[in-house]
Hints:
Oligomer: single chain
Strand order of the largest sheet: 2-1-6-5-4-3
Number of helices: 3
Largest sheet: 6 strands, mixed
Shape: elongated
Strand content: 25-35%
Radius of gyration: 25 Å
Number of strands: 6
Order of helices and strands: HHEEHEEEE
Amino acid sequence: MAKHQRLARDLGGLKVLGRWLVVATALLAAVATAQGSLEVRRTEVFAAEHAFARSMAERDFAAFGRYVAGDSVFFSGSTPLRGREAVLAAWQPFFAAPSAPFSWEPDQVEVLESGELALSTGLVKNPEGAVTARFNSIWQRQPDGRWLVVFDKGGPP
């Protein structure tokens, strides 16, 4: 094989390899961007959950209501409370006293690949700080970027 033919063959192979490297780099960048976006969403849900919990600590029922979706389902024991109005009616007595009857804090948040739904979970504590339950909330991202609770259910710690 002539020297120029080998050179042409080698250059052709390098072009193909170069194209594959460009594609691989683009794919890696897309994965990194998606993971970064999910981490941003995860941080958003942590912040929303902390603000939601703070509404109880600060005795701010209106703020609490701003995190409850219109079509939410919250469980009270095994009974589902369907819709924002039912949830707020059931939770309003928890805001009646000057001190919160319990508190909660997320210790884990996971977001779906779509970035539109997330699970937050964490411990519920009584006023003395003893763990009494574990909460599990499903959050849905709204078109305006806010996160609202669509499902909430407590369970044993």
